[in-house]
Amino acid sequence: MPAFEYRQAQEIRDCFQRRGIRYLFLGKSGAILLGFPDTTQDADLFVEKSRENCALLVVALRELGFALTAAQAAEVERGKDFIQLKNGPFDLDLIFAPDGIERFEEAWRRHVEVEGFPVCHIDDIIASKAATNRQKDRESLPRLRSFREYWMRRRGK
Amino acid sequence: MDAHGLNEQRLEDRERALGDIPPDWLAEFEAAARRPLETRFRYAFIHTYKPVLDDAPFRAFDTTADYRRWCEENLPDWLGYARV
């Protein structure tokens, strides 16, 4: 599996926009969109858990080239809290209930757009990583918090 | 405070906040900010094989806690997915 590419992110953005899917880039992939210089392996999407959104998501994933069986599609439609996809052109994590973020609507209110990509606010990305409390997240948090200071100042807030 | 004074104050606040950032990180943040998004993507996304994690085409977990538990029970420690 080759690394996730910019044009693939654009495909997600354009396809999801056409279908009217509500989602946000989260995790390190979200931070990278905000300008955080670091490395990661896959894209994390925080998807709104609603029946209509999940049904549209299945259609969009198939359009992007994910080979979902009927059973797998049903699990996406049910909005299982965490879904890992490695059966498409790139790896994708779908997160319907991330640690550290109470509700999609709240994250949506705070979100920022970067070249048309909907991205969680840096505070939500940090809150999620802090709540997860994994070794690999703990290691990245000090640098991420420094980036937050830089990013907030750059935005003039 | 007049508008000029306010701007000066904001500039000082910004300098103070940025002063808390380690200089090498600040240099990296500034450099990244100068790069187009497409270039940042090229530098940021890598792919290496992750044992167990990459060995199934699809996994779904009822709860995020179930996923975290599965990671702890099934993935090698060195991948860093275990909670601290």
Question: What would your notes on this structure say?
Answer:
The complex is a heterodimer of chains A (157) and B (84). With 157 residues, chain A is an alpha+beta fold. Chain A has seven helices and six strands; from the N terminus they run H-E-H-E-H-H-E-E-H-E-E-H-H. Chain A has helices at 6-19, 27-34, 51-64, 70-78, 104-110, 122-132, 135-154; strands at 23-26, 43-47, 82-85, 92-95, 112-114, 117-119. In chain A, the strands form two sheets. Chain A has a four-stranded mixed beta sheet. In chain A, strands 5-6 form a two-stranded antiparallel sheet. In chain A, strand 3 (82-85) and strand 4 (92-95) form a beta hairpin. In chain A, helix 1 packs across helix 3 (51-64) and helix 3 crosses helix 4 (70-78). The longest helix of chain A has 20 residues, at 135-154. The radius of gyration of chain A is 15 Å and the shape is globular. Chain A starts with 5 loop residues before the first helix and ends with a helix. The mean pLDDT of chain A is 95. Chain B has four helices and one strand; from the N terminus they run H-H-H-E-H. Chain B has helices at 3-19, 23-34, 37-44, 64-74, and one strand at 58-61. The radius of gyration of chain B is 22 Å and the shape is elongated. Chain B is mainly alpha-helical and 84 residues long. Chain B has two domains: 3-44; 47-84, no CATH class. Helices cover 57% and strands 5% of the residues of chain B. Strand 3 (82-85) of chain A pairs antiparallel with strand 1 of chain B.
Work out the helicity level of chain A. 40-55%
Quaternary state of the chains: heterodimer
Low-confidence runs of at least 5 consecutive residues of chain B: none
Query: From the alpha-carbon coordinates, what is the Rg of chain B to the nearest angstrom?
Result: 22 Å
Q: Per the principal axes of the C-alpha atoms, what is the gross shape of chain B?
A: elongated
Residues in helix, % of chain B: 55-70%
Shape of chain A: globular
Fraction of residues in β-strands of chain A:
5-15%
Q: What's the mean pLDDT score of chain B?
A: 87
